[in-house]
Amino acid sequence: MTYAPSSTDNYCYRHPDRQSFVLCQRCGRTICAQCQTQAAVGVHCPECVREARGSMPRVKPQSVTRVRTMVSSGAPVATYAIIAVSVLLWLVETVSGNTLSNAMAFYTPLTVSQPWRLITTLFVHGSIFHVGFNMWSVYVFGSMLERQLGRGRFLALYFISGIGGSVAVSLIAPGVAAIGASGAIFGLLGAFFVIERHMGGRGVQILVLVALNLAIGFIIPGVAWQAHVGGVIVGAIIGLIYMRTRHRSMRFIQIAAIVALGILLVAAALVRSAALIG
């Protein structure tokens, strides 16, 4: 019987009490079975495995890469996000009944205690037709305006117009509970018209579209036409602010004017709510 000669080289460098005759393919050190990691050729020791992993290029998940590519390429990410959240919440609503509508709808007497409803109401809808038509409108006009104005200005236009729609409901029909993004969408239409006029366009088509949609709101029962009127007025005001403060030197004035308008609308909604419950 033949025995292998006893030597420190024949013992695992991490476990000196374990004899082995297997060498790491990269560094040549002796490693026992517990320390071996199978490689394409031979085995590697733990240190060589860590070193190899550390030197490998880190590959980001494709989903993260796609989102960053969209953001850097100027894609209307904010528009897509609004559509995705609205559709997702509508799907949840169809499963849970009216749970979301009851928790997120705008209702004037609740504004003082739950002011977030001024925003959350924009994301809940009553039917597949409601969410489908509204999100189609957001896609068409939101995509254009977001690319033209930039994400920050577009989001300010969308949400402040939506608040303007809710304020109009609170002033004209305070007993009505309203849901949907119509106020914000009419704000996009109002701003689009003003921007088109300032850029040299006639804006007749968009004016006809606004008139037709306002008329539909008056004719179809159950539609909160007050939000449409409030949204289009506030959207037109924001569009005018953007056009009159386009120069880079007026950026601070533009931001201050938009913030002031938003604060004024929220204050009006709170005062109206407090007057009703007080």
UniProtKB/TrEMBL annotation:
GO terms for molecular function: peptidase activity. It holds the Pfam family Rhomboid. InterPro entries: Peptidase_S54_rhomboid_dom (IPR022764), Rhomboid-like_sf (IPR035952), Rhomboid_protease_S54 (IPR050925). Keywords: Hydrolase, Membrane, Protease, Transmembrane, Transmembrane helix. It is a multi-pass membrane protein. It comes from the Bacteria. One of its GO terms (biological process) is proteolysis. The chain crosses the membrane at residues 70-92, 118-142, 154-172, 178-195, 202-220, 226-243, 255-277. Residues 113-244 form the Peptidase S54 rhomboid domain. It is found in: Membrane. Belongs to the peptidase S54 family. This is Rhomboid family intramembrane serine protease. It comes from Frondihabitans sucicola. The lineage of its organism: Bacteria, Bacillati, Actinomycetota, Actinomycetes, Micrococcales.
